[in-house]
Amino acid sequence: MAKSSPAARERIVAGAADMISRRGLNATSIRETAKHARAPLGSTYHYFPEGKQQLATEAVRYTGEWVARRLRRELEAGPVAGLRAFLDLWRKIVVDSDFRAGCPVLAVSIEEPPTDETPAALVAAADVFGAWESLLADSLCEHGAGREQAAQLATLVVAAVEGTVAMCRAKRSTQPLDRTAEQLQALVLAAIKG
Prior knowledge:
The protein is mainly alpha-helical. About 75% of the residues lie in helices and about 0% in strands. The protein has helices at about 5-25, 30-35, 40-45, 50-75, 80-95, 105-110, 120-140, 145-170, 175-194. Helix 1 crosses helix 2 (about 30-35) and helix 6 packs across helix 7 (about 120-140). The protein is elongated, with a radius of gyration of 18 Å. The protein starts with a helix and ends with a helix.
């Protein structure tokens, strides 16, 4: 393969994540994704021979790791810094997209699966949410929270932020994110001072 192949493949995956974050999974086609990523349709099918579900799964994993890298870096300064970074990341996404983009992981999670089987993209979404929760819970534990409290609070943070991003898009305002941020920070501070 040519040297540009990994870059081209990643561009298609990133394009799919962006499209899914704006339109949802069901409204995102392979053809539109290729166009959005400025990639030939044939190369899209070459990289993703299993089609849309394979591409969606890769897009979810790509987003999950992209967020996790930032979260890991900021959590080195503690759970409050990690929380702020997590919130700031999603604030930037909704504001920079003029409230048109949200989280592709959530978008894949809430859409009706095409069959009775659990699609790989949905399994990937569960894994991503779990990874984000684990990063937050581990940081909370390292800073004094009990294991169960840390796990519960990490789930609350991820769920609250994901839901708040959807509210921001609907209201075309960051007010829900601002309100959520203040309350989540208070809970994190209480847990680590505990």
